[in-house]
Write a structure and sequence with these properties.
mainly alpha, 2 strands, two-stranded parallel sheet, flat, 13 helices
Amino acid sequence: MPCFCTVPTEIVSNRFSPSMSLVLPPVPLSLQAAVAFPNLTPENRLDMQIAALIDPIKIPNIHFGGGGLAQIAMTISMMMGNFTFDDLPKLEFQMQQAATSINTNVWPRLKGLVGLRMQPLLNYSIIARLVIDLQSLGIDPFNITFFPEPPVNLPHRFRFALKPPQIKKARFLAGLPQLFQMTEALDLPPLGDPGVVSAMQNRFNMMARLSPPQLIVPMPMLMKLMMVLEALATIEAAFGDDAFTPAGMMRTRSMLRLWGGFPIPMPPMPALAMNMRLAALPPLEDIQLGEQMLGSMSNPSFRMASSPPKLAIMPFLNVAMALNTAMTMTLDMPPFDMCSLCPCA
């Protein structure tokens, strides 16, 4: 059943203290540049890879209704294993289960974490993400004596390879698998079927009549809790169990001082700006999967326009999805469906 269980929530509560000190120096430019430079060689540039892949692809005339359909598809595809979307009375019951567990379990145990100062926490999380990225490149950021040698074919000037229509096509292809999964979760005809548009609209109209369950805490506070949990999980993944101990913090400060003293062999700002643009693109693997699914459509040239009605339950489902994702990052067990361990079951 889709409720946040007592056991994993208690583990999170015991692992992190609202009184933790998280203050660190700002992220050195050298640390950011060492991660960015390898992404910017011609063979690694994501924008160039996407351009080469999508230019020959013809996509169907599908309009997402200002992004509403894409957002619904993403939420449903990610939560279809926990909520039953093709049975609306059951969906209402499951949402109430989830809300009750948030009200009685998650928030009472974890509300103290939203008192952590966000700026130091996010700074620490950014540092942790960079450490993880450097380790994936085979670089130990704690055991280094000079700035890593940039790739020999790294250019000094960068020009983004994608135009707005290409970015739109890439995002469409990356979102196509979620659209396929949504039609499956809603028990609709497959994409390409002439009846899919009317069936989808009918299902959305029925879902629009559902009301979200009541929560004892505003949703923005729950989203803040999600951000805190994701940041804490990232920090632990980078620095281990002692990430928040005085010894662990001292070790991280020493690493930052070390990197702050490294000269950077080329101006970093253009490279960092380009790397940020690349980070906003969908993953190449998602686009490739969308291309494969496009080829499986019974009528790839069909036209579809859908402007779904406003679904009052979507903010609640997005919060439940975000909490589920954040707690899964933090734990070695899922936060849902641990009923065999739950004293309330």
